[in-house]
Design brief:
This protein has helices at about 200-205, 220-225, 300-310, 340-345, 390-405, 410-415, 420-435, 480-485, 490-510, 510-530, 540-565, and strands at about 10-15, 15-20, 40, 45, 55-60, 75-80, 90, 95, 100-105, 110, 115-120, 140-145, 150-160, 165-170, 175-180, 210-215, 230-240, 240-250, 265-270, 285-290, 315-325, 325-335, 355-360, 380-385, 450, 460. By secondary structure, it is an alpha+beta fold. It has three domains: about 5-25 and about 50-195, no CATH class; about 210-340, no CATH class; about 350-565, Phosphatidylinositol 3-kinase Catalytic Subunit, Chain A, Domain 5. Helix 9 (about 490-510) crosses helix 11 and helix 10 runs antiparallel to helix 11. The radius of gyration is 29 Å and the shape is elongated. The chain starts with 11 loop residues before the first strand and ends in a 6-residue tail after the last helix. Mean pLDDT is about 90; it is low at about 1-45.
């Protein structure tokens, strides 16, 4: 990426020309104007007054960063800072892009107050604000900034992804850099973001509790409570900056299920009614209430973090306060939904080929307790991916189902690894053992199946991680048949035991206990004011037990491994 900073931005020009009578030549506003240079002479350095404004940040592909007031569109924008001591009249400003679109400020556009960070909309819209009527090209463009008919700055950038800004870092004086930390109307951060993944850098973060407001019509409010859990039309605002006029919302949960009179858990689907709608690159997310299984509101975070660090595909987690028609519903956990965008995050090449299945739901509706070894795997509900899946994926699922239905002989175990990912299966089982995932495949209840879109191997996906770290690690007990089947074969069990030791070390290396403590302290003031909390366990009680098992379970798991397999002792 490159930026052409003309010398007069710094207060002087090294190559300024004047006519012999001392005047500066002028032409029309077209960039391709040809001037007669005869009779000109070089004047050397000419001191110019300092700039009154600074272009501080540009977003050429605004998808979900900010909307104009009372508007749900997301035009591109440029942030202008008045660095002078007087109001800056926008009638002095002119902007152009590389396509020769021109915007010229007028008296009606008003002024920018001293020190103000002003957002000028590069596009069309309505409501408060000033709109240029044209935008920049996200695949690369140039912004020319003209003040008082003098070219002040020429800013050039290469291709930029959605919701990534081109910003001065540090604020006002720094070099230009791409960053996922867009700050429209606010001071830029000292550095650019470490990654360009906007969801990672702004949504699933530990140091912010977001604010989500849903607006229901009376009909939608009554409809959402119906037993069949319909998806209703609502409007949504996030962090007071981004608005959606029509997104899908429905209630979720089993033990944690509640109606609007209580503290319901939600599935939020931006893409349901208006295809292509996303927030931070996400089509949907879940809001968990924590009422039944996680009074701490932190277990999801630490348990899924452990899974991801171990190499599993596990949801990312954030937090939000929620309002419904101005009624405060308290704090929720934001949980990533296991959809095609989730698949793309872990395996970009498998966005259209990876398959997520829910064994406890059947295709076409219905609920059951699906598992391997029962001969019904192909009837499991496909939550995401091609339907029907690739024949090779179906073959892997069918063969894994059949093999686990046989005796766990060495030959059958060896054959299973042709259709199931050995490393991922054993890692998943070890993850559940350390976290004592009471509500997961140990039950089996909350779990998902993933079929790789490239190698077609089957693995398990972490899901429903609220009820974790609430009991001692139990290395060998699994209600899920794939787990119990492996535990019945000495070789498989030994390989799994090695994974348990790795997982125990990872819990301590990540300092999950310290992470849990710090995040609990951060969230506690908001948890204390939650008006709709309703559980058999207080947050203080849940924190105490979670802290106890986070510290104890690694040693408990190691002890069980050493007793069964002395050869694995260090």
């Amino acid at each position: 990426m490159s930026v052409v900073m003309l010398a007069w931005l710094a207060g002087c020009s090294e190559n300024t020309f004047q006519t012999l009578d001392g005047t500066t030549p002028t032409g029309d506003d077209d960039d391709d104007v040809t001037l007669d240079h005869s009779g000109w002479r070089h004047s050397g350095f000419v001191e110019l007054p300092p700039a009154d404004i600074v272009i501080n940040e540009i977003m050429p592909a605004n998808r979900s960063t900010i909307s104009p007031l009372d508007d749900d569109t997301t035009p591109d924008w440029v942030e202008i800072v008045n660095v002078s001591n007087e109001p800056f009249d926008l009638k002095r400003l002119q902007l152009r892009n590389d396509a020769q679109d021109i915007w010229m400020g007028t008296e009606l556009d008003g002024s920018i107050a001293p020190g103000e960070y002003f957002v000028l909309w590069l596009g069309t819209g309505y409501g408060d604000g000033v709109f240029t009527g044209w935008s920049l090209d996200k695949d690369g463009d140039k912004l020319l900034v003209i003040v008082d008919d003098r070219l002040q700055e020429e800013i050039e950038f290469d291709a930029i992804d959605g919701d990534i800004s081109w910003a001065r870092t540090p604020d006002l004086t720094g070099d230009w850099a791409a960053t996922a930390w867009a700050t429209p109307g606010r001071i830029n951060r000292e550095t650019a973001s470490p990654t360009m993944n906007v969801a990672d850098e702004t949504w699933f973060v530990k140091d912010q509790v977001h604010q989500i407001r849903f607006a229901f019509t009376p009909e939608a409010y009554n409809q959402i409570n119906q037993p069949d859990r319909p998806e209703v039309h609502v409007a949504m605002e996030i962090d007071g900056q981004v608005r959606y006029r029509d997104i899908g919302l429905k209630l979720k949960g089993s033990a944690s299920y509640d109606t609007m009179d209580g503290k319901p858990a939600f599935i939020v689907d931006m893409n349901e009614w208006i295809p292509g709608t996303k927030f931070r690159g996400l089509q949907a997310f879940k809001l968990h209430n924590g009422n039944v299984l996680d009074p701490t509101r932190v277990r999801d975070h630490i348990t899924y973090r452990l899974a991801r660090e171990a190499g599993l595909m596990a949801p990312r987690v954030g937090w939000a306060e929620v309002w419904c028609n101005q009624n405060y519903y308290g704090i929720y956990m934001i949980i990533e939904r296991q959809d095609d965008q989730f698949i793309k995050y872990f395996h970009p090449e498998q966005e259209d080929s990876g398959v997520v299945m829910e064994p406890n739901e059947a295709q076409g509706g219905g609920f059951g307790w699906g598992d391997f070894g029962q001969g019904n795997a192909t009837s499991w509900n496909i939550e995401e991916g091609p339907n029907p899946p690739d024949p090779l994926s179906v073959r892997s699922l069918t063969m894994a189902d059949q093999i686990i239905g046989r005796p766990p002989s060495d030959q059958n175990v060896a054959e299973l690894w042709n259709y199931m990912d050995k490393d991922l299966l054993l890692t998943y089982l070890a993850w559940e053992a350390l976290a004592n995932h009471t509500d997961g495949y140990k039950s089996p209840n909350n779990w998902r199946v993933y079929i790789d879109g490239v190698n077609h191997l089957v693995s398990l996906l972490p899901s429903g991680a609220e009820w974790t770290w609430d009991g001692a690690s139990n290395d060998w007990q699994f209600g899920g048949r794939a787990g119990s089947w492996c535990m019945s074969n000495t070789g498989c069990k030994h390989d799994y035991a090695e994974k348990v030791l790795e997982m125990a070390d990872l819990v301590e290396r990540l300092d999950l206990a310290g992470d849990f403590r710090d995040q609990s302290i951060f969230l506690d003031p908001i948890i204390q004011i939650d008006p709709r909390y309703n559980s058999w366990e207080t947050p203080a009680q849940a924190r105490e037990s979670t802290w106890q098992y986070l510290n104890a379970n690694p040693d408990t798991a190691r002890s069980q491994v050493y007793q069964t397999f002395p050869d694995l002792r260090p």
